[in-house]
Design goal:
seven-stranded mixed sheet, alpha+beta, single chain, six-stranded mixed sheet, 16 helices, 488 residues, Nucleotidyltransferase, domain 5
Length: 488
């Protein structure tokens, strides 16, 4: 058995992919699921629907490939949280998604009480509704009887990976990996354990928390069509993407363009404390050894294109934005700040909302499509500038992946506005590749991290070709638009 099944449970869809012994995908199945917005700033998922998409895509991809599976790897949307009953396995409330901002007032109260520095020192994270802890506290405080049940040991907490493993293993394994634990705002990334201080601060019973394992480890055994198969790899989506990109050396940088944009800079064995409001997090943990990263998180990247399609109805599909952007009036300077749920790094403002600047009477779909794609480049520049300030010796070369990396206009603009070389691999979905590699490496099928790093190749590179003075002038206009958005 030399085939690996990788499950990529994302924010808007679930995909299952089977990889062969050469780490090449041979079969894939994908299924979207419903997004729920019950109140302004709230985003929820149906846990049972997510679980169904996982089991359905697993079944579909196995039917396509008709091969035996040696191991399973899981990667998942991070920070999204679930609380479920340990006896029934049923969630007591819908999954609260990482984009959800309902706990902004709770976080502001903790900040006012002076808790932010302690949180940053312990967890590497900033005090923001983005992370899991305040969402868990909200569920315990707003679902009738939930806190009492949690304190009695009846309820369990987990990120999506943990819920899937629990469900697929029939309630046998309540586990997670270090990368997902590090995104909860409850995990001490220096002591490598759940923090009793953080749990006390957020009033979360520690008996709810899962066991934390290496990214490549034995997480559980599950039954697939009567055959027992081990889950041997788990990582949050952005860390999985970094591993799929072969970013195993300090100084290597990748940026994933999915629903949001997430740039991860490997800092090796050193947990760099950012002075520019980036996150200090765990890049991966293998064989008990932790490698750290600086991360910049942008809430809206591919989601801005979805907005053009589903919100405004001015495009039919994502690929057409490239042609529209190329046809836009070069004399117009429309700037879109996509703060639909606030702005992430390096601003971390959950209250501001999106804005468009520079509209003219003749502005239309072409100019909005260009502004939408450029907004991703501008936000990437924000992250790169913050990373260069934290790590002055950084020589930026950006490896990109995710669905939007297929858009040549967007990638060229990122190269132009950052002044950095942008490299795109042949397989853009490196997130699921990273999950497959973890499981396959643990199973003894796939190469070591050193070998994977050395064999990585770019399919296409984008070099900056924008005049440096024009680059800085354009970026200054973006900064002015962001300042105006934040001031409202």
């Amino acid at each position: 058995m030399t085939h690996i099944l990788a499950i990529d449970q994302g924010t808007t869809s679930t995909r299952s992919v089977i990889f062969d012994a050469e780490m090449k995908p041979i079969a894939s199945a994908q299924q979207e699921f419903q997004q729920y917005y019950p109140n302004s700033g709230w985003v929820e998922h149906d846990p049972e629907e997510i679980l169904r998409t996982v089991t359905t895509t697993m079944r579909d991809v196995l039917a396509q490939a008709e091969v035996q599976i040696a191991a399973i790897g899981i990667t998942n949307q991070r920070e999204t949280v679930l609380v479920w009953d340990k006896d029934t396995g049923k969630a007591v409330y819908p999954a609260i998604v990482w984009q959800d901002r309902r706990t902004a007032k709770h976080c502001a109260g903790l900040q006012k009480a002076g808790a932010e520095d302690q949180i940053a020192k312990t967890t590497g994270l900033l005090l923001d509704p983005y992370f899991s802890a305040s969402k868990v506290a909200w569920i315990l405080d707003h679902v009738e009887g939930a806190r009492q049940k949690a304190e009695a040991g009846q309820l369990l907490f987990g990120t999506i990976d943990s819920f899937l493993i629990w469900s697929l293993s029939g309630g046998e394994n309540h586990v997670t990996d270090a990368t997902n634990a590090a995104r909860t705002m409850l995990y001490d990334i220096h002591q490598h354990q759940w923090s009793s201080d953080m749990c006390a601060l957020l009033n979360i019973p520690m008996q709810m928390l899962p066991e934390v394992k290496n990214c490549a480890d034995h997480f559980a055994d599950i039954a697939i069509e009567g055959v027992t198969v081990p889950i041997l790899g788990v990582a949050g989506d952005q860390q999985a993407a970094a591993m799929g990109q072969g970013c195993f050396a300090a100084g290597m940088l990748k940026s994933t363009y999915g629903t949001g944009c997430f740039a991860l800079l490997n800092t090796g064995a050193t947990a760099v404390r950012s002075s520019n409001r980036l996150l200090t997090t765990i890049a991966y943990q293998l064989d008990g050894e932790v490698t750290y990263a600086l991360e910049g998180s942008v809430y809206i990247a591919g989601a801005v294109v979805q907005w053009l399609r589903d919100g405004l109805g001015i495009i039919d599909d994502a690929p057409c934005t490239q042609a529209l952007a190329e046809q836009a009036d070069p004399h117009q300077e429309v700037i879109l700040v996509p703060a639909f749920t606030g702005l992430g790094a390096p601003y971390w403002n959950s209250e501001c909302r999106g804005a468009i600047y520079g509209l003219e009477r003749s502005s239309g779909a072409k100019e909005l499509a260009r502004a939408a794609l450029q907004s991703v480049g501008y936000q990437t520049r924000d992250l790169v500038e913050a990373m260069k300030a934290d790590v002055p010796e950084l020589d930026v070369r950006l490896r990109v992946d995710g669905g939007m990396a297929a858009n040549d206009y967007a990638m060229q603009f990122i190269a132009d506005i950052t002044g950095a070389r942008v490299e795109k691999p042949a397989l853009l979905e490196t997130t699921v590749l990273g999950a497959a590699w973890l499981a396959g490496m643990q199973a003894g099928i796939y190469p070591s991290r050193q070998d994977l790093m050395q064999t990585w190749q770019a399919e296409k590179s984008y070099r900056p070709n924008l005049d440096p003075m024009l680059r800085e002038a354009q970026y200054a206009k973006w900064q002015k638009a962001v300042a105006a958005t934040l001031s409202v």
